[in-house]
Amino acid sequence: MLFKQQALLRQKLFVLGSLAIGSLLYLVARVGSLDRLQPICPIEGRFGARSQAEIPLRALQFKRGLLHEFRKGNATKEQIRLHNLVQQLPKAIIIGVRKGGTRALLEMLNLHPAVVKASQEIHFFDNDENYAKGIEWYRKKMPFSYPQQITIEKSPAYFITEEVPERIYKMNSSIKLLIIVREPTTRAISDYTQVLEGKERKNKTYYKFEKLAIDSNTCEVNTKYKAVRTSIYTKHLERWLKYFPIEQFHIVDGDRLITEPLPELQLVEKFLNLPPRISQYNLYFNATRGFYCLRFNIVFNKCLAGSKGRIHPEVDPSVITKLRKFFHPFNQKFYQITGRTLNWP
Ligand code: A3P
């Protein structure tokens, strides 16, 4: 009897031991595969005078944690000096388009270890009061970064504001400009939805989209309505082209960024001359949210705020058809100028 119990105990211990060893082996393998997903090879600092410099990616990732502390204001001046951190003017700007997916694009690019984002929209070039404060004010609004990293900011109002192209040109005539666009009618409805939500929050009433988008006297598309005007991408782009050659722009397909973000991000990495570092590991689909969310590492992941991905109100199909017909020739021109065809209706 005693012998039988001992044998049973030995058997149990064996099973438990095997389980423990198995789990350990799994963990080792998992961490190993994560290491491979977060590559450890050196990354080239391809910008500016430090183009020959190389920073080990692992070091950068470690430092990102530190950068986060700096952003929160928890760093001392000594730490900043010690780590050689600087506040750099942006090397690339997401200039628009409002509701195109500008926040998603910025956050996703920030997954790249060589990219540092300005978290807030700075509105330096479109706001006269801010602009009058001068370029040093703007630089001081930038996050701390390592000299080999590039800073990116986004302020979607830049795309449609008259004075902005000239002002950005004066700061840096070779800056890289990112424009994220969505199918123009969908973008206009998204724009309307955001304004509507603001009105509802203040307990105010607002017009229906149809009333704003269509001129009730002529029954034609109301080109005075801002949400319509913003979606005439080619008109705005033409103003920018007076200052910058088309090679300095990259068009991001905002509709594809929603459904298939990685290939869009890889095109941006290429445009920015960054080594490809954003992988499928960094992006996972969250069924509850209905969108891709971001995975920085094994412990830190995040989805965009609830204000991104609102439910749009239903719009009369005849109004949608009218708008799509209206935008069609402008879209054709946009494809022609940018060299990117987006298969919009
Ligand atoms: P909707 O709210 O109309 O769905 P912006 O940041 O320029 O204001 O753009 C907001 C839009 O980003 C949202 O518009 C949403 O569709 C889109 N978007 C793209 N990728 C997203 C993501 N991963 N999570 C949430 N929204 C995303």
TrEMBL record:
The reply to whether Transport figures as a keyword in the UniProt entry is no
Please give the Gene Ontology molecular function terms for this protein: [heparan sulfate]-glucosamine 3-sulfotransferase activity
Q: Quick one: where is this thing mainly located?
A: Golgi
Known Gene3D superfamilies for this protein? P-loop containing nucleotide triphosphate hydrolases (3.40.50.300)
Could you say which EC number(s) this protein's record lists? 2.8.2.-
Q: How does it sit in the membrane?
A: Single-pass type II membrane protein
TM stretches of this protein: 12-29
Q: For the Sulfotransferase domain, which residue ranges apply?
A: 90-334
From the Swiss-Prot or TrEMBL record, state where the protein is found: Golgi apparatus membrane
Query: Please, which domain of life does this record's source organism belong to?
Result: Eukaryota
**Which residues are connected by disulfide bridges in this protein?**
293-303
Q: List, alphabetically, the GO terms of the cellular component aspect.
A: Golgi membrane
Q: Where does 3'-phosphoadenylyl sulfate bind?
A: 99-103, 182, 190, 292, 308-312
Catalytic activities? alpha-D-glucosaminyl-[heparan sulfate](n) + 3'-phosphoadenylyl sulfate = 3-sulfo-alpha-D-glucosaminyl-[heparan sulfate](n) + adenosine 3',5'-bisphosphate + H(+)
Q: Which Pfam families match?
A: Sulfotransfer_1 (PF00685)
Catalytic residues per the record? 99
Q: Name one GO biological process term.
A: heparan sulfate proteoglycan biosynthetic process
Q: Which UniProt keywords apply?
A: Disulfide bond, Glycoprotein, Golgi apparatus, Membrane, Signal-anchor, Transferase, Transmembrane, Transmembrane helix
Under InterPro entries, the record lists: NST/OST, P-loop_NTPase, Sulfotransferase_dom
Determine if Nucleus is one of this entry's keywords. no
Family of the protein in this entry: Belongs to the sulfotransferase 1 family.
Query: What is the name of the protein in this document?
Result: Sulfotransferase
